[in-house]
UniProtKB/TrEMBL annotation:
GO MF term set: 1-acylglycerol-3-phosphate O-acyltransferase activity
BP GO annotations: phosphatidic acid biosynthetic process
Stored CDD domains: LPLAT_AGPAT-like
TM spans (from-to): 20-45
Metabolic or biological pathway: Lipid metabolism
Pfam family, one: Acyltransferase
Top-level taxon in the UniProt lineage: Bacteria
Protein name (Swiss-Prot/TrEMBL): Acyltransferase
Domain Phospholipid/glycerol acyltransferase: 95-203
Length: 271
């Protein structure tokens, strides 16, 4: 059985006014941090000796450490608490990590858990002044949905990288089950050694697609990440041609997440 490897949980919730200020401060810190990384840190990293792989690894570790620090800042400011079950199973070579996407924060938390992960990110972030330099230095993959993107992601996995992808392509609508695009399953069939599902439950909901940053909930947010058992994509690939195999894997993952998230919801309601 997996164990809780990381947890920052507290029943105390700071006052609403303080959490509103702390949330604004967190956004400010994130923006300033991104600018410092873009203008100062990554230009210096690019001057250090090493090949393209070494530079990429350094960039990803800087992002990992920065995100880890940012999560701790949000915790200490009283914005959120979190728990992670099974983090020790993340970061394996050729591992495709598939997660639902209920909040803007979950991306930061998940990347903070893995030292040297690749990630499929929104195309718009490539032009974001706070994020474009770190994203390019880390050689993250744009979610353009093109055949080239699928090939690039599959090649990264075949090359031994760990890749994070959010198959919904955007944040989940609160109260509705996730809807997965088939691209993640197609990538898995093409190149993944294993597929590892990570269910993310955020309660109360915050920073969804329909909620501005200042619309904070009545109490402090708790983020729960639970790492599931590895799935062998070859069991789907061996039984059917690639297009059918990717559809069956996508259906399997969709049903898995619906079931696991419903279980999390029932547990949260009882507590």
């Amino acid at each position: 059985m997996d164990v809780v490897t990381q947890a920052k949980v507290s029943a105390y919730s700071p006052p609403y006014a303080w959490r509103l200020v702390a949330t604004a401060l967190s956004f400010l810190i994130f923006g300033l941090g991104g600018m410092i990384l873009s203008v100062v840190v990554f230009p210096i990293l690019n001057l250090l000796p090493g090949d393209a792989v070494s530079r990429r690894t350094r960039a990803r570790r800087v992002i990992n450490k920065s995100f880890s620090a940012f999560v701790q800042i949000m915790y200490r400011l009283g914005v959120l608490t979190y728990s992670v079950e099974g983090a020790e199973h993340l970061g394996k070579p050729g591992q495709l990590i598939i997660a639902n996407h209920p909040s803007l924060i979950d991306v930061v938390v998940l990347i903070s858990l893995i030292r040297n992960s690749n990630c499929v990110v929104k195309q718009s972030l490539w032009n974001n002044p706070c994020m474009r330099s770190p994203i390019r230095a880390a050689q993250y993959i744009s979610n353009s949905g093109s055949v080239e993107m699928l090939d690039e992601a599959a090649a990264a996995l075949q090359g031994g990288q760990c890749l994070i992808i959010f198959p919904e392509g955007t944040r989940t609508t609160p109260g509705k089950p996730p809807e997965f695009h088939r691209g993640a399953a197609a990538i898995a069939i093409r190149g993944a050694h294993c597929v590892t599902p990570v269910t993310i439950h955020v309660t109360p909901t915050t920073l969804t697609k329909a909620e501005p940053w200042y619309s904070i909930p009545a109490r402090r947010v708790h983020i729960q990440l639970r790492v599931g058992a590895d799935i062998d994509p070859q069991q789907f690939k061996a039984a059917a041609p690639a297009p059918i195999a990717s559809r069956k894997l996508n259906d399997y993952l969709h049903q898995y997440f619906i079931k696991e998230l419903a279980t999390d919801e029932r547990i949260t309601t009882r507590n």
